[in-house]
TrEMBL record:
Coiled coil: none
UniProt keyword Lipoprotein present: yes
GO process terms (BP): response to stress
Span of domain Lipocalin/cytosolic fatty-acid binding: 68-209
InterPro entries: Calycin, Lipocalin_bac, Lipocalin_Blc-like_dom, Lipocln_cytosolic_FA-bd_dom
The protein's name in its UniProt record: Outer membrane lipoprotein Blc
PANTHER family on file: APOLIPOPROTEIN D (PTHR10612)
Repeat is among the record's keywords: no
Length: 226
């Protein structure tokens, strides 16, 4: 009889999932820390062995950071699409809100409803630092001291309506918009930009921002893995 074992990256992810489920009744500060642990763990697992091979011929070409006008870049951004990963999986109506502090750092807020539109809104807060000499586009996101991850601004349109974010190894990526909806033509154009940067755009899934988007082609469904 052949004995099948769970792959190490899958087992580690499941352990994080169990740990996070035990935190649902915990105080907000504790839940925020566990959300950060999930982001870090899943980023590490994805970059190691959890992600499928990237078939894009430009997969190994380093990403270029886009320069941004930081004050103009601040404010509310809706998560239109991302490469699904554990920490944001099953969230709908998710958005980021960035606030520039007097010391030049950024208060980074994440909001979303985990499991459906009838669920209470969750809120997590992080602290970001802008790396000097990067034109404002390379941020170090502090999940909790002393743990940081790198977040790159890959593109922002001239009117600051849309932006693309990513990780240096292209394991994770996001499409953001100032509005909660985006027409298909604009979305395809932004995916084309990501593909030209070396992303495997087949991994991106749209995030429902309103109930009528649930079940639509290309959108994630809470509670179901694609």
């Amino acid at each position: 009889m052949t004995r099948h074992s769970t792959p190490p990256h899958r087992l580690a992810t499941e352990r994080v999932a169990v740990s996070l489920r035990t935190q649902r009744a915990a105080p907000q500060s504790t839940r925020r820390r566990w959300f950060a642990v999930a982001v870090l763990a899943c980023a590490a697992l994805t970059s190691c062995s959890g992600a499928p091979p990237n078939p894009n011929p430009l997969a190994n070409v380093p990403l270029k950071v886009a320069s941004v006008d930081l004050p103009r870049y601040m404010g509310r951004w809706y998560v239109i699409a991302n490469i699904p990963y554990f920490a944001e999986r099953d969230f709908v109506a998710s958005r980021a809100e960035w606030v520039l502090r007097e010391d030049g750092r950024i208060d980074d807020h994440f909001y979303g409803r985990k499991g459906g539109f009838d669920q209470p809104e969750s809120h997590y807060q992080f602290l970001d630092s802008v790396l000097p000499g990067t034109g404002g586009g390379h941020w170090r996101v502090r999940l909790f001291w002393p743990i940081y991850v790198s977040q790159l601004t890959l593109y922002v349109d001239p009117d600051y309506r849309y932006t693309l974010l990513g990780y240096p190894d292209k394991s994770l990526g996001w499409v953001f918009s100032r509005e909660p909806t985006m027409d298909d033509a604009t979305y395809r154009l932004l995916l084309t930009r990501l593909e030209a940067m070396g992303y495997d755009t087949s991994r991106f899934r749209r995030v429902p921002q309103m109930p009528e988007q649930l079940g639509q082609p290309g959108f994630v469904t809470p509670g179901r893995e694609d």
